[in-house]
Amino acid sequence: MSVVLAEILRGGEIESRHLGAFVVADAAGKIVLSGGDPQRAIYPRSSIKALQALPLLVGGAADRFALTGAELALACASHCGEPVHAATAAAMLARAGRDAGCLECGTHWPSSDAAARALAEAGVRPSALHNNCSGKHAGFICTAVAGGHDPAGYVGPEHPTMRAVTEAVAAVTGTDLARQSPGVDGCSIPTYRVPLQALAAGFARFGTGEHLPSGFAEAASRLREAVAANPLMIAGVGRFDTVVTEALGSSAFVKLGAEGVYCGTLPALGLGFALKCDDGAPRAAEAATAALLRHYLGANPVLDRLAAPTLTNWNGIEVGSIRAKLV
Amino acid sequence: MSVVLAEILRGGEIESRHLGAFVVADAAGKIVLSGGDPQRAIYPRSSIKALQALPLLVGGAADRFALTGAELALACASHCGEPVHAATAAAMLARAGRDAGCLECGTHWPSSDAAARALAEAGVRPSALHNNCSGKHAGFICTAVAGGHDPAGYVGPEHPTMRAVTEAVAAVTGTDLARQSPGVDGCSIPTYRVPLQALAAGFARFGTGEHLPSGFAEAASRLREAVAANPLMIAGVGRFDTVVTEALGSSAFVKLGAEGVYCGTLPALGLGFALKCDDGAPRAAEAATAALLRHYLGANPVLDRLAAPTLTNWNGIEVGSIRAKLV
Lengths: 327, 327
Known about the structure:
alpha+beta, 8-stranded antiparallel β-sheet, 19% strand
């Protein structure tokens, strides 16, 4: 069961259409708004990086290595490989006495075309530091080292660090993941299926600190504040998550995941949300997320633009638009 | 009304799903296979570039300027901006005594990441020759010049060249486009909505030469042979249309369009097809097209792979697959 999340218009006609499902819930798990099946289990992918970063703080690594706000924000990020992202990931690793050779996320060119071309223009090849997940992985390595574990193999589901990460996600979302056979994420860590309602409730807890294990509320608050203070770290120049964070500060936390997923929280309203575009399209997930934020936070020029982006062609001519439909 | 075109699997579970519609028809317009609404009118976008290239031959420009097979193929292409594509487009313009300054398609970096980074590494900025449509536009300019028209403004619906192009599409697909208010395509030419059945029948005619105006059958045959003999021109290294053409030669003609469209023909079987992925995803349109080709042409290692591509992550680990579902 799905609902229309967004339509793509050209010449005043609907050219394409994106279906999906979403849930807005409070920290007790009560659904306050939904479309489609709220119990649909999805792979949250990178949308839960902030939950996966909780052990970095709860386990003491963040304090032991005196990680900065920018570094904590990068641990929650899907960054686009700008120089500042790679440098910050390298600095995190250095604090734990490690380097990029410990990263097990794989290497890819920066997802920012401009950053990729700048690297190429400088005759530089990308490293694992440019992987969009390098901050999360640097955080895993810090967690492992602070916990007295060899980080080697940290991407495996049975590594002590990854077990702590999975247990944190399970605890925050109230979902039993221990017996689930996970998929493998783009960066090689396990990805477990979680129902939309559980994700939304988990992010309400992440936003409010309610219904969380000891130490998690403070850790969540520090991560949210770190991202709000360092919006460029969560994604990059012009990226949706960065633009939203620049506009809304600590009044919202939003994070994309691959295959059209968004999760986030509106702390002051006590709400969390989770959204999945059936076909995996970021453009629909983004527009729908902007519409959802606007529904709860009120009109805002940035959200207005992101909920209904204008489409232009290579000559800058306006050819159509994206129109969020979920609320 | 839509059907499932393809599913995206991860960890053995369906992570994402693509809906759409398709029609296979003969040159008389008889539907021999379909899913979803065969009368759905879609923007065919670049899937009909081969039809839009017909006036280049019918009007005499191709012969007057002695265009090569590679150049005719590029006139039908959505190329990815490799050096050979830009050079071939420049050569076409030179034959008509023009240059890249006449192109009205706009400029973008090559859609091939490797080609874009190679340009950047060489310190070169892209020109309109790198626009994926530069061959089509060079063909329009040749058509205009051979017809005695100033090519300036050729992208406008009322320019004599664009009128001939629109009339060719209308004639081949049997669709009245004269009173339709078109959308604007990515390269700034008008794009008209055509029902899937009419597109499929039109491509059956393009493949067989049946039910076509005088001169069109020979022009269609020359274009098909040109593409079959120059598969790299139609798209680029590793691209779906190029790989399919390399594998199947003149036994099939396939062409993608933006927003998840495919059109093509199986000349020996007398069939044409048109396919639209509702959400605009190329990955689903490609897998579904490969499955459709395999359905009619039989198993083939290339089609088997393209109909069910394996998905790997940044470490080369197999994480899932795409599974075409339409036949």
